[in-house]
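1st attempt posting a full record on here, be nice pls
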Amino acid sequence: MIKYIKVINGPLETNSYLIFCADTGQAVIVDPFDYMCIKEVISENKLKPSIIVNTHFHEDHTNGNRVLKRDFDIPIAIHGDDAGLLVSGCRILETCGIKTEVSPPADIILSEGQKVIFGDESMDVIHTPGHSPGSICLYCPDKMLFSGDTLFASGVGRTDFPGGNMRSLVKSIKTKIFVLPESVAVYPGHGGDTSIKIEKKYGGDIF
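the predicted structure (as tokens):
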């Protein structure tokens, strides 16, 4: 069984996730910012991190990469279209005077249809460009979608950062996300949870 713990952390209240196999405790760390907070949750729940997955390269989703990779000796994974930007891309928070950690390079390059395996469980990688060129969602078939900054509750990710493209974002949502079962729960990179059904019905005029 796949379980998850949401960790709201950082100055932009990023939703980091610890997604784990209930039988083995093997866990995926998704979009870490505050590594101390995340390490505490890992310890409290006796989880065994096996990989860090970034849904995109922005530092509010990657600030914890360096320390967590070092302390748990685990790889960092990101889509190929964001791999270069992970270490050289825009420093959004630093323009606001907030110092952040630069991530090490990715160890694993993800692509559409690839599986992220943890314990006895796995999630599918869905490439959803728009918020960034290499934005991805992680899909637990027919159950859960961890959507990063592609889709929020009643909203979508910004496209005014380098590499963003609204046309691509809308296409990704229509052709990659809204084709999933309406019962699928959606867990975004910021804000509250939602579902495919709710977003198709109340998602706004953008669609």
